[in-house]
Structures
1.
Amino acid sequence: MPVLSFTATESEAGYRLDTVIVAHLPTISRSRASWLIRAGHVTVNGLIRKPGYLTRPGDVVRFEIPSPEPITCSPEAIPISILYEDADVIVLDKPPGLVVHPGAGHKSRTLVNALLFHCPDLERVGGAFRPGIVHRLDKDTSGILVVAKNDMAHDSLSHQFKKRQVQKRYLALVYGNMKTPAGVISLPIGRHPTDRKKMSVESRQSRSTETRWKIKEAFSGVTLLEMDLKTGRTHQVRVHCAAIGHPVVGDATYGGKRRWKDLAQGPMQDLIRAIRRQMLHAWKLSFVHPRTGQLMSLKSPLPKDMASVLESLRGLHSEARH
């Protein structure tokens, strides 16, 4: 494990520790430098500091560069739908049912396995199980996802997500009829008090969260919403919709799967009862290209199952009106 050290100069005084490290070792990104600091591989005058520590003249900075963590995922020839690709990023259209990265119960057949097959030289960024991954979608949520192909792109995209500069819009089919044409849900989200696999608006340790919504189409008993996420919390849309009494149709975790019983008997209930996953789709994504600085705005078409449900709802709605 290489060990490097330097002494901070007058010109470097007042700059963040992670920024100064990158100046001395430009082959790594600032996010990588921050990780090294948090992992205890960096000391200042023999002490562990935070990435935001402001250096002083004469500070002796010593850091270790651990060997790259080997990729433990194997490439697999899993088809992926690519909306855009260049040397720095890949924008994908994730189908429902595909897990983004390996975890408990999902050691293979994930998006990461597919990416390693498609990009054998994908740089080891984001950890051994998440090369290039800067955000994710739940297994049964479909839609658009951007992946970094190199360290520079990963650093830029991670920063944009952290600073809420990425625009994320979803389409969600929810139970019930909304009382207003649009609204804002501002409820903090954290881990569920008793079920660690779930998120909740009643967590003891929560973070501020905001979801803006507006009606895109209204039917009898269910509504298609366009959701604009101002933050990016785990299960945000699903938790927020359930919290206001309009869970996402088909969402077994947050109450959606049981709500079909509340609908009137007949074709509508039969249609909703047949749904096997949450009707949630990551529809649009806008971000600044890491290299060119160009604003990239891409859209993912509705997957077949959700498009079919909406088409059937339109048919039933039309029949009811006549």
2.
Amino acid sequence: MTAQFEYSTLAHPQDIKQLGTIFEQCFISALVGEKAYINLIGIENFRIIRESEQLVGGLATLNMGQWWGGVRVPMTGIAAVGIAPEYRGSGAAIALMQQTLKELYVKGIPLSALYPAVQTLYRKVGYEQGGSWCNWEVPTKSIQVREQPLPLQPIVGINHQVFHQLYQQQARRTPGYLDRHPAIWERLIQPDEKETFYAYFIGTKEQPEGYILFSQHSTDDGAILRIKDWVILTAAAAQTFWSFLASHRSQIEHVRWRSSLNDSLTLLLPEQSAKLKHTMRWMLRIVDVVKAMEMRGYPSGIETELHLDIQDNLLDGNNGKFILSVANGRGEVTKGGKGELQLDVRELAPLYTSLFAPYHLQITGKLHGTETAISAATQIFAGSSPWMADFF
């Protein structure tokens, strides 16, 4: 028998308390104070699900944007998906996700992204791997970059507004980067009680060419400098970044930072001493096929069209044949066409993000297409490996 669930927003004080208790058990207090987390995200941004009037779980929605082809596309991040242990396996999580996606579709949101605890659940509602989240580490003594072309200016009285303009310049050029939700900024610049937090502009205060935010930690393996956020906009800033980190070598054993799977910054190091410490993939859901394809940017030098045949078992408006016409860096979608590239909406995600080339999706059975369609898709979705610096 299929359980009947009721989906709604979070409003009543007793529901807020109950959801906080569920989160506490689900995440073993990983959210560092559930009540504070709920307040930070905003009560109105939570969705809950009940069975027989009993609250059984909920999630957070973060309305923000993501950069694709140099253009910001509206995207809702899904976080803190939690179901009370006694209701797991009841279908509550799938029902919660389905209703959330239907709501996002009605609102006209093109994309949704999340970090999966388990992929199976999210694949059932149309999410697929979209890009990478990586932690790198390098021994400080191996950096050996001495020349520092730019000054560093300490930032006193940190407010995340001072970083926005620089951050957006880097984000625009980085496939997958977020136009961050205020809560992500807030958590980024608020140190916990165990850390001291440092921030510097790279370059002059009037004309910075980047910034670095970091904290320092003593561990059993020696002291670590952990970069919480960075922006580098010029070659001089990149050189200065490494020189500054190298200057910590007498006290700091290792530097850790987040970057892409193929981090170009490591080209400045004399040897291949930087290593990937940890990597995982976040997932993307194309919520509105037409909006998602029309709102992003594309390579400016191509003029072609792609005939798609898409299947979406949840959102009917995404089903059927579409023609994506690309010219002058923009796309236009019309209904109809030959349906030469057949795929589920789930498989559209890694194609859309350029995580995998059409050929590789084809040989793993994720899409089927004519030679013409595969060639057009390869041109349209050519791009560097997508990643984001933020975990949510």
3.
Amino acid sequence: MNDIELLRKQILEVDAEIIALVALRQQISKKIGEYKKEHNLPVLDTAREALLHEFHGMKSVEHGISPELVTNVFNLLIEESRKVQKYEQ
């Protein structure tokens, strides 16, 4: 295997980990949706989302990656989490 093939293999391994973590995040979101339903809480929690965005911004800087990239990725994940939680309602 040459260098680029090894690097591409590493990318695939990282992608698989990311997908597994996204699946785990969705499972947890489903449980949160169940909790919110049981306790008559709204799906949308703007205060919590603001805290998440602040956390994601800090982590992106900490890891030296684009805050815009991280924001875009997590906007999608949060949107999907809301969908999962609404389904639980």
4.
Amino acid sequence: MHPFSLSRLGRGPWLAAVALWATSAAGAGIVPPPPTPTVWEAGLDDFSPAAYSAGVEALISRFELEGGHRLGPGPKHRVGLKIYTDSGPGLATPVPLVQAVIAALVRRGFAPTDIFLVGLNQLRLRQTGFLPSLVTGHGPFDAQKIYVLESGRYYDPVWFYDSPLPTRFDPILAQRSRTYATYKSDDEDRKSFLATPLFLDADFWINLPVYTDHPVLGVNGALVNATYWNASNTARFSDSAGTAPAAVAEMSAIPELRQTWVFTLVSLERWQFIGGPWFNSLYTVSEPRVWLSTDPVILDALMLDRINAQRVNRGFKPVSDDIRTVEFAAKLGVGSRNTAGARIVRVP
């Protein structure tokens, strides 16, 4: 396994992540995911803004009730939403879901301008309706700042994930590198810089992924949206089913990222079971439900089961057992992959 690090933490073997995260989290008053993973589920009558608003409010209220505290502004008075648009139109975080989350946060004391969105690619953000229309100049999130990571403006040289696989390991991967930064040395080539707004500029942040399969990561969902699509220079992992899962698991265990990651909220309005992460409507499924969990590993494990079930039913092979993203993340203490022991709480 590759060492992982943020430069403020130093480097260490990957199994040290469990102790490192636990120590830091305890100091911040944050409790690691419980042994029995919990997923709160709200059914939707349809996918209208009203249905999403009711479902999201019910889920967050239940989360607050069971956790014993209410979400609200802290010292920074800001909250971040990590959205997913990288499969393009048809398979992005639903706009009504994001609007419902914003409305729920406003009810809890945040101003609309206190909330910001983080996405990767400007073109896809515009195609999926998040960035303003080039015709009208307006969009559904005019009050919120939208940070486009590929602009290169939201990475800090102090915060990075360190891996020995460089961009120039493969010239094709180097051309596909998901950042506009210029790497000038072998030392810089091996670094993936993390998007700092979520853990430096916000009291907390919410992960809003979409689920697809992925050729080297197995499942593209909660863990991947928080790491692979949230850092620079990650295309260097794209052709390795050994390196990519380890990188995602190790980044997801970084203490600073975990401390402010309050939960993952995901709609199953549309998810894809083969051919991903590129959108193909022939292989999508729609379920009228929204899930909320503090455990990204159990969400990915549950969706991996769904993806495999659909594959088998359609005559395709399941996702390879050699792709161990979920397993690696579980070993690092990020969460549980015990789907049989998961507690599913259906919230009316």
